Amino acid sequence: MNRQESIPLGQDGILAPSLGRGFADTNLRYTINGYMFGNMPIMTMKKGQRVRWYRLALGDSNNFHTPHWHGNVVDFHGRHTDVVAVSPAQMETVDMIPDNPGIWLFHCHVSDHMAGGMVARYQVLPWPTVVCRPTPRSAETPNMQSRYGRSSNPVWQILRERRRKLGVSQEAFADLCELDRTYVGGIERGERNVALVNIEKLARALKISLSELFRGV
Ligand SMILES: [Cu+2]
């Protein structure tokens, strides 16, 4: 094997990577964390979660990389972008709050590197995380309990009783609705304001119509 094939020089003696066509060059691979062609364990996060990406490149002048995210953007120096370049021994930290669920490619956008294996995947799970609220509950808009607390049949009570009747655990029910379990717990204790879109999810999982749900209120 002629190793010089992977560092070919032009007639003028200057490095010309595009000239390499032999065995060594065509078997040159580029990796992310030692993995290539999407075989890295998938990186998983949740929609709405704060995610921090640490990127570092090492190597020779061929290792100038342009990491690129499909599906979501990152915050980098006050702008939204989906490509942030790193030179050898350069480090960059970027933050992402993914809003687009799915399985997405994360790859270097230098075409030789991409073709040489520098491709990974990340997954954004669809259910939202519960956002921590710094303000005390009393300072917020009235929650379901205070709004419906004096009603004989508050929505949250109907939801809870219906779920129990179906014999579904709160955890399984939350999965079914694609909602966070602590969020569903908060709903069932009447501690949370619930958007209509989420009430619809809950009702659908309980196989109950919205009109039926609100009838007893
Ligand atoms: Cu690259």
Order of helices and strands: HEEEEEEEHEHHHHHH
Query: From the 3D coordinates, which CATH architecture of the largest domain would you assign?
Result: Sandwich
The end-to-end distance, rounded to whole angstroms, is 80 Å
Cofactors and ligands present?
copper (II) ion
Q: Care to describe what's here?
A:
The protein has 217 residues and is of the alpha+beta class. It has two domains: 19-125, Immunoglobulin-like; 137-215, lambda repressor-like DNA-binding domains (434 Repressor (Amino-terminal Domain)). Helices cover 26% and strands 18% of the residues. The chain contains eight helices and eight strands, in the order αβββββββαβαααααα. It has helices at residues 23-26, 111-115, 144-148, 155-165, 170-177, 181-188, 196-205, 210-215; strands at residues 43-46, 51-56, 67-69, 74-76, 79-81, 91-96, 102-108, 119-125. The strands form three sheets. The protein has a four-stranded mixed beta sheet with strand order 1-8-7-3. It has a two-stranded antiparallel sheet with strand order 2-6. It has a two-stranded antiparallel sheet with strand order 4-5. Strand 4 (74-76) and strand 5 form a beta hairpin. Helix 5 crosses helix 6 (181-188). The radius of gyration is 26 Å and the shape is elongated. Residues 130-151 have low confidence and may be disordered. Residues 30, 65, 108, 110, 113, 118 line the site of copper (II) ion (CU).
